[in-house]
């Protein structure tokens, strides 16, 4: 009764909020592109677009996995450390062949996901703590594996993944496109996607309805781990060296930001795939715009902080129910 | 508006006069008046949505009335918050126990008004006082223990003790007995009588009509935001109250009876569900239940007797250490809900909100949720099959939703329950376990749900029914298995399925009694 | 307080011990409660004794001193975090705010001297905490996200002040500001006193009780008339104050406002609090537990520094991470058992 009343209290404000939440991020992206194009003459140049893609794709890929985890009302703080771990693994196993080393890097991400998912699903540990433990522990492990100094990686396959093209478009972008398609399909067209949302919305009810709750949780963290590993490989390729001590720092924060700005509520039960893409692109555009106008990195962080608050504030209207 | 002249009435303590409250477009309260007198227990009843909770919220300052006035001891008052109302002497005890389970009993009792010495909380004095106060309310516990370790009844008493301690002149009790055992209800009534004897006015909100007749002096009935009746409790009978609440004709109520169950159904011989010696550390000792197709078996017992535990154990949601569940003779893997569902057992859980609905999913998504793997190929969603199923159940169960895409959290409790029922039924279960299927839904939806259960049983479904309402349990069940302290202590069948027989079974049977007394 | 004897004794006595159904649950329950409340301390004692016996170079006054002094100021982050987590919140900004406190103090010594160097960080900590608290309590945004933004904001502000981290404000020699947090005894005493004050605040004041009530059942807290918004804002202000103040004291000790400090400190603080038995879900926890958690992590890091120095901090990260996972797993299993016992 009171719920009904509250809902009817301000329908117009509600509708505006809903629109803002659903389409605000796309509008913001379009707006920023328009501004950048109008103000800076070379924004739409091929070279500049490539720069933006290289910067945005790794975060975007991590954010895709993060969106799934957040959809289950979880969070994955370990992604930055998994990037470091993948980066450490690549030079270590390049001797056995490039695909072997890539496979092992992906497997490392998967194992991390199994641990996180296992702790969450079976141990019922809170996601934030389970992945916090991995975040602290895995980076230490990665640095131990690699040694304190960065290792150069010259393997052409890996480097091409980072900087090479396929059909005139960076390989990185292809990877991202495929992953976006896969995740969108998973979320919207499969029983798994439906189960994921149900688990995120009401875990107890999902369990009683006979859904494979634990399986869903573990898969979600495994996907997040594997995606972070993919991002790690791309970063190694782009940089041409592996530096686990410094790779992926704060990626968990950027990824969470992209997801939240993209309109996925932290309370679970909903995953916005394209929104997440737009969120990642938006955050990159903000950064690019500020750089273009010679605004210092310090202000960029402050602006980012304001955007995060704005995004969750806009999302509050519905998620708060 | 039936009302009689005030003869020998004590002074009014709280007067609510002509209160209106509107939420954009919805009149929650229309010109509501209610007078509460010292030393009276005043029943406030009505269907869900009748405006009871809004009225209480206005009286306690959680909402502000659009118009009308509230007088306390003759003086006009406005409360900015429940706290302000509390300070003025109006305390409320809510349906859900609003205390802090992780904190100790004493700290809960004195939260925000702790005795202090030298500016710091005097824990020793607090515990000492707490023990003394609680004893007077019939609760004898170490006040240093966390509240959550107490039984629900004892917790409720702590809440009441807290409320009364605040120099209350008016105590509002919102469904105080909904989570209490019979014995605890008696204790509560004892406390209420004492409060009344000391001139405290009480508003008593409850759906349980029996209780009203036992404890209340006056009654106010609300419907659609209006007061439709006000009189001495003794001036009305049950039937009249029901018809007032429903706004239906008395004759109709008489004809339909108070539940929608029909008397007899055809029951086959071989049991479809055979649960044997289920034992769990969490409160089950060798519980066995058989159910035949077309049979509704009730589980009788007090709160904590193991009724919910039994059905949860059958669907594998409560971990059992030993025992077995067979469906049509085939043993079901223990402790796995997916396995139980696959075998054809489905549970409609007691707590719809926390264990039933998936609030942000649509009606459609909620209905097909459990059946998805069955109607999907290779994990891909199949829209047309979903629609087919959803349309069927929306019609069959008369689910009132603006569209199948409406979020289930926006539906009324009764319709949510029907969605839950639909989710269970589209799994084509052989056995349906119903834990309080009509709790907290309004009378109309209740009858509809009961009728559906009845029909399903007639079609040969095996049903296990748990209900705190004796009436529903007795009229709905062909057989009642009586539980106590996690043991089966008896069974009522045939003509023995009566309220009296159940009472005496509950009262008589010692815990260590044998399994089934046939 | 007035009515109780008027009520008389109710008819039937209710035994409160409904949950102690199965016999023998009592002992298990008590053990579980002990592990939950004192687990951090127990492990600390065991590790400490083992280290004294088996590790050369651990048991020396110098080493103990370096452990205590090295963690004195950062432990204050965990202290503030304890309060926040008890309310069911989290404060991810403390690492950045810690660094900001140091930079502001360094800046202050050049712009007005010691009073500015002391007061400016404290005011900044309070202000950041207040804004975060208001966003969380009034606008009802998730603490996790708000303080994440706070982390970015404080780091950005710090870099803006220090010309993108390129300027380090040294505390002038002979400045009275140095005396504030230098030496051996002073940092240790500061931490000990603040922890004691914190413990009293938590257990023996209404503010402390309100924190528990908020974390345990916010609805109930509201209905019982607790000042929910005020308490929440205050707790984030307290955390900000402690973090920024700790950074300020640390700058006094180091003699400069180091810009790149504090990254990841919030994680260590959270880990210490959780290892100390405070529930991340809120409603339960203790300052003494946090003290044990801080010391335990410090001892492990120290041991690894002594014996596995070639891996540096990465090895202690690995161990601390694993440790946190194990502790939390045990804690979760125990509290689940207690709830269902």
Give a quick precis of the structure.
With about 525 residues, chain B is an alpha/beta fold.
Please characterize this protein's 3D structure:
The complex is a heterotrimer of chains A (321), B (518) and C (341). Chain A is an all-alpha fold and 321 residues long. Chain A has helices at residues 2-9, 11-39, 46-71, 79-93, 98-121, 127-146, 156-163, 171-189, 191-201, 203-208, 213-239, 251-261, 273-292, 297-319; strands spanning 151-152, 165-166, 169-170, 241-242. Chain A has a two-stranded antiparallel sheet with strand order 1-4. A two-stranded antiparallel sheet of chain A has the order 2-3. The model of chain A is unreliable at 1-10 (pLDDT under 50). Chain B contains 19 helices and 23 strands. In chain B, 50% of the residues are buried. The model of chain B is unreliable at 1-5 and 509-518 (pLDDT under 50). The longest helix of chain C is centred in the first third of the chain and has 30 residues, at 25-54. Chain C has helices at 4-7, 25-54, 61-72, 74-86, 94-110, 114-137, 143-161, 178-181, 185-204, 206-216, 218-223, 228-254, 265-275, 287-307, 313-340, and strands at residues 14-15, 169-170, 256-257. Chain C has a two-stranded antiparallel ribbon with strand order 2-3. Chains in contact: A-B, A-C, B-C. The A-B interface holds A 1-11, 189-195, 197-198, 201-202, 204-212, 269-270, 321 and B 23-26, 28, 48-49, 51, 53-54, 57, 315, 317, 337-338, 340-342, 347, 349, 354-361, 365, 369-370, 372-373, 376, 379-381, 409-410, 423.
List the helices and strands and how they pair.
The complex is a heterotrimer of chains A (321), B (518) and C (341).
Chain A: H1 2-9, H2 11-39, H3 46-71, H4 79-93, H5 98-121, H6 127-146, E1 151-152, H7 156-163, E2 165-166, E3 169-170, H8 171-189, H9 191-201, H10 203-208, H11 213-239, E4 241-242, H12 251-261, H13 273-292, H14 297-319
Antiparallel strand pairs in A: 1-4, 2-3
Chain B: E1 12-23, E2 26-37, E3 41-45, H1 52-59, E4 67-72, E5 75-77, H2 82-88, E6 90-93, H3 105-110, E7 116-117, E8 120-121, H4 123-136, E9 139-140, H5 152-165, E10 170-174, H6 182-197, E11 201-205, H7 209-215, E12 218-223, E13 226-232, H8 238-246, H9 250-256, E14 273-280, E15 284-291, E16 296-300, H10 307-314, E17 322-327, E18 330-332, H11 337-343, E19 345-348, H12 352-356, H13 363-368, H14 372-375, H15 383-396, H16 413-425, E20 431-435, H17 443-458, E21 462-466, H18 470-476, E22 479-484, E23 487-493, H19 499-508
Parallel strand pairs in B: 3-11, 3-12, 6-10, 10-11, 16-21, 16-22, 19-20, 20-21
Antiparallel strand pairs in B: 1-2, 1-4, 4-5, 7-8, 12-13, 14-15, 14-17, 17-18, 22-23
Helix pairs in contact in B: 16-17
Chain C: H1 4-7, E1 14-15, H2 25-54, H3 61-72, H4 74-86, H5 94-110, H6 114-137, H7 143-161, E2 169-170, H8 178-181, H9 185-204, H10 206-216, H11 218-223, H12 228-254, E3 256-257, H13 265-275, H14 287-307, H15 313-340
Antiparallel strand pairs in C: 2-3
């Amino acid at each position: 009764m009171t719920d009904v009343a509250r809902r009817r209290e301000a329908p117009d404000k509600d509708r505006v909020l809903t629109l803002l939440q659903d389409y605000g991020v796309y509008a913001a992206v379009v707006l920023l592109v328009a501004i950048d194009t109008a103000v800076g003459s070379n924004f739409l140049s091929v070279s500049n677009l490539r720069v933006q893609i290289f910067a945005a794709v790794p975060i975007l890929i991590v954010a895709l996995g993060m969106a799934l985890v957040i959809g289950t009302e979880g969070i994955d703080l370990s992604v930055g450390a998994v990037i470091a771990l993948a980066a450490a693994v690549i030079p270590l196993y390049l001797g056995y062949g490039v695909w072997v080393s890539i496979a092992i890097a992906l497997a490392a991400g998967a194992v991390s996901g199994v641990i996180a998912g296992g702790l969450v699903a079976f141990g019922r540990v809170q996601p934030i703590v389970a992945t916090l433990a991995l975040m602290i522990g895995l980076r230490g492990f990665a640095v131990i594996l690699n040694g304190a100094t960065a290792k150069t990686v010259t393997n052409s396959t890996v480097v091409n993944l980072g900087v090479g093209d396929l059909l005139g478009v960076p390989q990185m972008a292809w990877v991202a496109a495929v992953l976006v398609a896969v995740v969108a399909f998973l979320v919207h067209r499969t029983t798994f996607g439906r189960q994921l949302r149900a688990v995120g919305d009401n875990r107890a009810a999902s369990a009683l309805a006979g859904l494979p709750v634990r399986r869903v949780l573990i898969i979600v963290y495994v996907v997040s781990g594997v995606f972070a590993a993919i991002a790690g490989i791309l970063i190694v390729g782009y940089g041409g060296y592996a530096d686990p001590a410094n790779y992926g720092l704060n990626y968990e924060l950027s990824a969470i930001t992209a997801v939240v700005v993209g309109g996925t509520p932290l309370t679970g039960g909903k995953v916005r795939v394209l929104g997440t893409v737009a969120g990642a692109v938006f955050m990159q555009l903000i950064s690019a715009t500020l750089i273009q106008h010679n605004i210092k990195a310090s202000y960029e962080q402050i602006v980012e902080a304001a955007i995060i608050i704005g995004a969750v504030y806009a999302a509050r209207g519905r998620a708060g129910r | 508006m039936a009302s009689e002249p005030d003869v020998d009435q004590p002074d009014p303590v709280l007067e609510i006069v002509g209160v209106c409250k509107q939420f954009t477009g919805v009149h929650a309260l229309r010109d509501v008046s209610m007078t509460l007198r010292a030393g009276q227990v005043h029943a406030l009843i009505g269907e869900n949505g009748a405006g009871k909770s809004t009225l209480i919220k206005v009286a306690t300052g959680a909402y502000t009335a659009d118009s009308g006035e509230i007088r306390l001891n003759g003086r006009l008052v406005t409360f900015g918050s429940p706290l302000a109302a509390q300070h003025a002497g109006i305390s409320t005890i809510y349906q859900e126990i609003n205390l802090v389970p992780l904190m100790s009993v004493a700290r809960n009792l004195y939260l925000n008004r702790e005795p202090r010495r030298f500016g710091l909380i005097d824990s020793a004095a607090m515990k000492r006082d707490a023990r003394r106060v609680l004893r007077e309310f019939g609760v004898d516990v170490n006040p240093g223990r966390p509240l959550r370790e107490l039984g629900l009844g004892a917790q409720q008493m702590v809440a009441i003790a807290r409320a009364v301690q605040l120099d209350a002149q008016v105590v509002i009790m919102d469904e105080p007995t909904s989570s209490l055992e019979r014995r605890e209800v008696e204790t509560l009534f004892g406390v209420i009588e004492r409060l009344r004897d000391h001139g405290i006015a009480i508003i008593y909100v409850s759906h349980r009509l029996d209780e009203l007749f036992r404890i209340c002096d006056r009654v106010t009935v609300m419907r659609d935001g209006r007061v439709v009746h006000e009189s001495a409790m003794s001036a009305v009978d049950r039937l009249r109250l029901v018809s007032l609440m429903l706004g239906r004709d008395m004759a109709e109520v008489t004809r339909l009876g108070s539940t929608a169950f029909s008397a007899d159904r055809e029951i086959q011989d071989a049991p479809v569900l055979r649960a044997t010696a289920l034992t769990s550390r969490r409160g089950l000792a060798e519980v066995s239940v058989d159910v035949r197709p077309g049979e509704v078996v009730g589980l009788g017992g007090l709160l904590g007797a193991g009724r919910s535990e039994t059905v949860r154990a059958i669907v594998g949601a409560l971990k059992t250490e030993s025992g077995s569940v067979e469906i049509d003779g085939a043993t079901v893997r223990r402790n796995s809900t997916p396995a139980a569902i696959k075998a054809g057992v489905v549970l409609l859980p007691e707590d719809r909100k926390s264990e039933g609905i998936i609030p942000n999913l649509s009606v459609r998504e909620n209905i097909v949720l459990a059946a998805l793997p069955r109607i999907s190929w290779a994990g891909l969603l199949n829209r047309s099959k979903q629609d087919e199923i959803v349309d069927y159940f929306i019609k069959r169960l008369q689910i009132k939703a603006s569209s199948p895409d409406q979020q289930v959290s926006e539906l009324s409790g009764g319709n949510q329950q029907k969605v839950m029922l639909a989710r269970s039924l589209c799994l084509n279960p052989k056995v349906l376990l119903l834990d309080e299927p009509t709790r907290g839904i309004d009378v109309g939806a209740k009858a509809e749900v009961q009728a559906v259960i009845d029909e399903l049983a007639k079609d040969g479904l095996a049903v296990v029914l748990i209900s705190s309402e004796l009436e529903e349990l007795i009229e709905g069940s062909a057989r009642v298995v009586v539980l106590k302290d996690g043991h089966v202590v008896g069974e009522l069948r045939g003509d023995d399925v009566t309220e009296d027989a159940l009472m005496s079974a509950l009262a008589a049977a010692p815990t260590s009694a044998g399994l089934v007394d046939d | 307080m007035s009515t109780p004897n008027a009520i008389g004794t109710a008819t039937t006595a209710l035994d409160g011990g409904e949950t102690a159904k199965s016999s023998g649950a009592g002992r298990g329950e008590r053990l579980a409660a002990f592990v939950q409340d004192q687990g951090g301390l127990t492990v600390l004692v065991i590790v400490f004794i083992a280290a004294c016996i088996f590790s050369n170079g651990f048991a020396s006054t110098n080493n103990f001193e370096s452990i205590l002094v090295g963690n004195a100021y950062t432990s204050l982050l965990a202290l503030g975090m304890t309060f926040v987590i008890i309310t069911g919140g989290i404060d991810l900004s403390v690492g950045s705010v810690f660094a900001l406190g140091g930079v502001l103090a360094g800046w202050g010594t050049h712009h007005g001297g010691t009073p500015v160097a002391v007061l400016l960080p404290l005011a900044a900590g309070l202000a950041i905490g207040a804004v975060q608290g208001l966003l969380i309590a009034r606008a009802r945004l998730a603490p996790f996200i708000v303080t994440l933004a706070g982390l970015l904001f404080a780091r950005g502000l710090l870099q803006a002040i220090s010309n993108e981290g390129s300027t380090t404000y040294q505390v002038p020699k002979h400045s009275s500001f140095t005396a504030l947090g230098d030496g051996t005894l002073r940092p240790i005493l500061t931490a000990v006193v603040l922890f004691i004050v914190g413990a009293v605040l938590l257990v023996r004041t209404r503010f402390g009780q309100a924190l528990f009530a908020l974390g345990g059942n916010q609805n109930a807290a509201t209905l019982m008339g607790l000042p929910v918004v005020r308490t929440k804002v205050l707790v984030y202000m307290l955390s900000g104050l402690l973090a920024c103040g700790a950074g300020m004291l640390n700058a006094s000790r180091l003699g400069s406002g180091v810009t790149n400090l504090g990254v990841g400190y919030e994680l260590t603080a959270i880990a210490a609090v959780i290892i100390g038995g405070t529930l991340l879900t809120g409603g339960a926890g203790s300052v003494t537990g946090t003290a044990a958690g801080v010391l335990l992590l410090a001892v492990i890091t120290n041991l690894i520094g002594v014996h596995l120095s070639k891996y540096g901090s990465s090895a202690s990260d690995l161990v601390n991470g694993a440790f946190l996972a194990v502790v939390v797993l045990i804690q979760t299993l125990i509290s689940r058992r207690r709830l269902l016992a």
